[in-house]
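Sample entry (125 residues):
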Amino acid sequence: MPASYKIYLMPGDCFDVALTYKADGTAVDLTGYSAEMAIAWPEGFTGKRGSVGSISWRAGGVIVPGEISNPSSGQISFHMDADETSSIPPVGTAAYQVRITAEGGCADTILCGNVKVYRDVFEDV
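Predicted structure, serialized as C-alpha cells:
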C-alpha cells in the first residue's frame, strides 16, 4: 500500500517536492527507474492541454516527471517553475499519486494523497 502525505502548492510559485523511498526503513535503490507525479483536478475543473517544458498538461490534471536525483539512496525530486504552476487552477484540493517504473516497465505507486492548491492572491490585486 502506498504511503500518504499532504502537499501544498501556490500557483505562481516554484513547486519542489523531494522524497526518499524506503522499504522497512531502508532506502530502496532506484537505479534504472523513472518517476512521475500525477495531479488530478476535482470534477468540474479544466486546465490547459499540451506540454510546457517537461510538464504534460491534460484536461483533468497534470503529469510532472520526476528526477531520480540519487538512485542508490532512493531519492526522487519533482519540480515545476513559477510559469508552470501559474497555469494550475485554484481547485482547492486535488488528488495526487507518485509512481516509479522499473526499466522492464513494472510500475508501482509509492505515494498518494491530496495537494492543497491555494488561490494566488497576487493575481487578484
